[in-house]
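Sorry to interrupt, but I need a hand with the structure work. Could you add the entry underneath, on a fresh line?
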Amino acid sequence: MDYYNTINKTASAEFKDRGSKFIAYAYPLPDADSFKKYLQVLKKEHAKAVHHCFAYRLGITGDIFRVSDDGEPFGTAGKPVLGQIDSKKLTDTAVIVVRYYGGTLLGVPGLINAYKTATSLVLQMIPVIQKQIELAYSLEFDYTRMNEIMQVIKHYNCTIITSEIQLFPVIKLGIPQSRLEEVLFKLKELRNVEVKRLL
């Protein structure tokens, strides 16, 4: 597994059922802290809504996830939302569904269907992108090696996370998992380059 599926845009979509309105918002999610900010903004924006249900999945292996029914019957909101995220094999993705109650109870099957449909609609609006799995390394080197280092970075499609350019520059780098051995071999061929794995 050298790639994972995610989204890089936000979107919203609406689904109505017997007067109730379900507005789904999808977000690319770099970390759990970002999610809290998204939720706070929506709770302010939709202060009159009765529920703000959500699900998200995080991490390259997708093993970090959270669901919330926010007062809806257990398993009728968060789980169906997560189910739609999973059906597209997405990670680093969050969906929050805001519900305005329309006066008619939808029952368990109705709720599951509404949250599932709203999530499905919003995810259809955003193209799924593939990102390569990268491993973080730090390079410390003599300034005279800068051109050769940059050539390796470019050639193997590495991502520069941060760079401090001084007499001995330090670059934090994302190296594609699929090209790791080649990149490390190339870097070790260069003199005066210290390569460290970052966790």
Notes: The radius of gyration is 22 Å. Residues 133-197 form a domain with the Alpha-Beta Plaits fold (CATH 3.30.70.240).
